[in-house]
Input
Amino acid sequence: MTKPKLFIARKLRAAVEARAARDYDVVLNPEDRLFSRDELVAMCRQVDAVLPCHSERFSAEVIAELGPRLKIIANHSVGTDHVDLAAAAAAGIVVTNTPDVLSDATAEIAILCMLGAARRGAEGDAMIRAGKWDFWSPAFMVGRQVTGKRFGVLGMGRVGQVTAQRARGFGMEVHYHNRRRLPAHLEEGAVFHDTLEGLLAVSDVLSLHCPATPENIGVLNARTLALLPDRAIVVNTARGALVDEAALVAALSSGKLFAAGLDVFQTEPGGNPEIAALPNVFLLPHIGSATEETRDAMGFRALDNLDAFFAGTSPGDRVA
Ligand code: DGY
Output
């Protein structure tokens, strides 16, 4: 039987690519080049399936040009904001994602961002690297301690829940706002707020974990930042689109916010130079799920979804 033809848009872990090559007629991207929009369309028109990352954008216009052969977009990501799900569904293209497997890795990065921001990690690191550490006193590089503070989670899905567990390890009191209140065994004592405003008012640290759906775009803006306690810390490991970056820069510059720890930006790759120029930020280049274990698990999960689809069953992680 001929194997389905699969385009793997970015370089994946060797074991993932080996399994894919065993089961599919694969087209790989060994140089890990970011394909242009037109190249992506041209590649997808020649295959039965594509395995992209969040770096490949499937807008409604792109989907309209994909032609009749492509049957499934099996994402190597939990986020699906780079795919117009309604357009894919209308075109009869199945879309899947990779939930669950990246929750631990992303929670680790959220905690790193929180601590890096609270304890001025980037400032201290830069000072030593530049050979400028020439002073010490009890007044030197004083940060904010997170122990005993209130940890606000916006979006208590899988990543939010694991991050909340890690924050409890620092003696933090967990608060959250979510579309739906969680059952008690998942809440684990976290305090539910039925409004965003209620959560913001008590968040000494606010950590974003909601998807970048149209209603969540810019959820953290001048109005909502003003509702946080003075000298709060903002952590974003979800999507840059959730934050109005100009408002964030203003809040960080005025002292309304003590600091921010960010793994995601509106413009990626690259980030935001105005944010990068601030001293009170701890910044990472969208590496929340970038561990060996999690990259393997994401790749295998995407392949599981493809296998189910080509076996004629519904993939477990179907989102469209
Ligand atoms: C995800 O899975 O959505 C991560 O942001 C990596 O793409």
